[in-house]
Amino acid sequence: MCLVASLLIGLPIQGTTAAPCEDITESLCQPGFNYTQTAMSNSLRDLLRDDTSLKMLQNLPFARMECSPYLQNLLCAFYATRCDQDGGSPALFPCRELCAEVKSGCVAVLQSFGFGWPENLECERFPSHNAGQECNLEDFRVPPLIDEINSNRPEDEGSCEPITVKICTGSGVLHSQTRTPIAVSFGSGPEDFNLYQTQKESLDVIAPYTTHLSRGSGCQEFLKPLVCGVYLPACGVHGRDVTLPCRDLCEQAQSSCRLSMITHGLQWPSSLDCNRFPTEVQSPECLSALSVGEVEMLASDESVGVRVPCTFSLSPAVQPQWLAPDGTPVSDTDKRVFVEAADKHLTVLTIGEFSDSVDSGEYTCTAGNFSRSVTLDDIFEPASGTSFILLRSCVACFCHSL
C-alpha cells in the first residue's frame, strides 16, 4: 500500500514503499540537519500542509517555545522522511517512542491554542523501536525503565526510613517511607544517575519546581506524589528494592503541569521522563492514584460471592466507578451484581452467587483518567442459587476490615 493511501485512511505507516530520494527543501530541516535526502514526495507534502495542527507545529515561533527538545527532530523525520542514499531501502519513518516524547510535551500547548494533536502524527501508527522495528529516532535515545537504573546502583542495601522532608509528608503523597541512598536518573543510560545520601540532598535538586508541589490549580495533585515518588522513592518489599510511580501517574502530572511550567520558564525535568516508569502491567505494585485490592470470595457449599475494592488515593476525592466486561457501568441498584460507595474514595464491586458462565470477564475500575482492571474467571459454577442479600449487607463490614 502506498504511503499516501495509508495516511488518508489512518492505517499504520510501517513498511511502506519509499519514493525516490531527493534533496530536502523544508526550511525547518535546513541547514545542518542529520541527513540531506528525503523520500517524501512534493505532492504528499502539499497534502499534509492542509492539516492545521501540523501547520501550527511547523510554526517556528511555536517550535521555539521548547515544548519538547525533539520537536524539530520529529517534524523533520516526518515531513522529510529519511531514505537510503542509494534509494534501495524503504523510507525510515519516525519511531513511535520519538513521537510519544514530543506529544507528551507539546499536546497541552497545542490545546491552549485551540488545536488538537495532529491526526497524521498519532504515535501508534509509527513503527516501534522497542519492538525491534526499523525506524528513525533522530538523536532521541529511548530511556530505560528506572528499574534498570536501580539494578546498576552500588551494592549498598541502605536503610528504610520515614520520610521527614515536610513537602513529601501528609496528604497528597502515596507513601510514607523511603530508602537511602537514593538513585535519581539524569540521562538515557542505565548508569546515568546521581546517588544522594540524604532525603534533603535529593529533593534540593528539584527546588525550582517545589512551588508547583504546594499550589493547586490541577497540577499539585499529581505532580506532588510523582516527584516525591522519584526523589524519595518508596521502600520496596524485597531487600533494597524501591517501589516506583506508575507511568499513568507521570503522564497525568505532565499533562496537568506542562503548560504551567512553560509559563514559568520551566521544562519538564528529564528525571521525570514518563517512558522510564513502569506500567501497572510491568510492575503491579507501582504507585498510582488508583488501585484495585485483592479479590475476596465468600464461599458456601452451594455458592460463591465475590467482592473487589477499588480506591482513589489522592485529593480532591474522585469516586471510582466499575465497568462490566461489556463496558457498561455496574449500577448500585442491581440485586446481584452491584457497586457500593463505602466512602468518597472507595467503591466495592460485589457479585453475589458468582457463576463462571455468566459473570466471567474483565472488570474495569475508572476514576478520572486512571483505570485498573481485574479478570474474574474460573471461580465457581453453581449448581443452585443462594441469597445475595447477605453479601450486599456485608459491604460495610468489608470496608472496616481494610
Q: What can you tell me about this protein's structure?
A:
The chain is an alpha+beta fold and 402 residues long. It has 3 domains: 3-125, Frizzled cysteine-rich domain (Orthogonal Bundle), CATH 1.10.2000; 146-276, Frizzled cysteine-rich domain; 290-401, Immunoglobulins (Immunoglobulin-like), CATH 2.60.40.10. It is built from 14 helices and 16 strands. The chain has helices at 3-9, 42-48, 52-58, 60-63, 71-79, 96-112, 146-151, 199-204, 210-214, 220-231, 247-263, 356-359, 389-393, 395-401, and strands at residues 22-23, 37-38, 159-162, 177-180, 182-185, 193-196, 234-235, 242-243, 290-292, 296-299, 304-312, 321-323, 337-341, 346-351, 361-367, 370-376. Strands 9, 10, 11, 13 and 14 form a 5-stranded antiparallel beta sheet that branches. Helix 6 (96-112) packs across helix 11 and helix 10 (220-231) crosses helix 11. The longest helix has 17 residues, at 96-112. The model is unreliable at 1-18, 60-65 and 385-402 (pLDDT under 50).
Q: What is the mean pLDDT?
A: 75
- Tell how many strands the DSSP assignment holds: 16
CATH architecture of the largest domain: Orthogonal Bundle
- The unreliable regions are 1-18, 60-65, 385-402
Number of helices: 14
